[in-house]
Specification:
alpha/beta, 9 helices, disordered N terminus, binds adenosine-5'-diphosphate, binds magnesium ion
Length: 257
């Protein structure tokens, strides 16, 4: 596959490999959920993963972060092999931020506390420094004024932006998004996508499971289509949408576009 170094907005992809997945297979009990996954992601890539419900998108994302175990093949993140060694798992988790469909904020903690909890307790960052970092990222996602509120007092879109800020406070090198806008009301989708676009423009390596095809066209340098646990097809967005090769991709696109 050929890949451009930049997309129209000039976002750069480096030669450095961020994630290398080789011949990876995963089962849930007897159920073969991921089949022969090969995927190399370079630093600065913005990859959109799409595919029908149940095709294994979330499972793939969760394997990269070691939230799920794989049974065969290898996953190497930033040079660290994802083995059962807990030290490696901790290291990978600290380099990889994750954002889910449901924001998973702690309801009994303020926005600021949600953002400082892990840096203080996992990274041992002094409280004041953690708060300064949190405010920096809350400003980035454009809600510094909500810092003293609780998640329940915020809109869904605001909560998702807090979840993104909270991940960024751990200074990840890679961000994984699993349908971050699919639980949001339509008028809030844009504000979350805008935050993600900004992150991409700053050079963050991102894998985003999303059906927001406008986002894919604008931001992705590569779109991956999954079906039945396999990567069926991948291409640059332009070619992917205009000229899908596989029948399953064509069917999927005809249903969502
Ligand atoms: P997607 O995100 O593409 O909708 P998932 O990765 O969530 O797909 O799920 C892929 C398949 O694995 C589905 O058939 C789902 O029912 C199954 N699955 C997901 N999680 C589990 C689990 N913890 N145990 C057993 N089966 C699961
Ligand atoms: Mg999913």
């Amino acid at each position: 596959m050929t890949m451009t170094d930049t997309n129209p907005s000039g976002m750069k992809v480096s030669d450095e490999i961020a994630i290398e997945i080789r011949n990876m297979n995963k089962w849930y009990g007897q159920f073969h959920v991921l089949r022969d996954i090969d995927l190399t992601v370079r630093q600065g890539e913005r990859i959109v993963v799409c595919g029908p419900s149940g095709s294994g998108k979330s499972t793939l994302i969760r394997c990269i972060n070691a939230l799920e175990e794989h049974q065969q093949g290898s996953i190497v993140v930033d040079g660290v092999p994802l083995s059962s060694d807990i030290k490696n798992i901790d290291r990978i988790r600290s380099e990889v931020g994750m954002c889910f469909q449901h924001f998973n904020l702690f309801p009994h903690l303020t926005i600021l506390e949600n953002c400082t909890l892990a840096p203080i307790w996992v990274r041992k960052v002094p409280k004041r420094e953690a708060e300064e970092t949190a405010m920096y990222f809350l400003e980035k996602v454009k809600i510094p004024d909500q810092a003293r509120k609780y998640p329940g007092q915020l809109s869904g879109g605001q909560q998702q932006r807090v979840a993104i800020a909270r991940s960024l406070c751990m200074r990840p090198r890679i961000m994984l998004f699993d349908e971050p806008t699919s639980a949001l009301d339509p008028e809030m989708i844009k504000e979350v996508l805008d935050t993600m676009i900004q992150l991409a423009e700053e050079g963050m390596t991102m894998i985003c499971v999303t059906h927001e095809m406008g986002f894919a066209r604008q931001v992705a340098n590569r779109v991956i289509f999954m079906d039945a646990g396999q990567i069926v097809e991948q291409n640059e967005p332009e070619a992917f949408f205009k000229n899908p090769q596989n029948e399953r991709t064509k069917l999927f696109l005809s249903q969502i576009l």
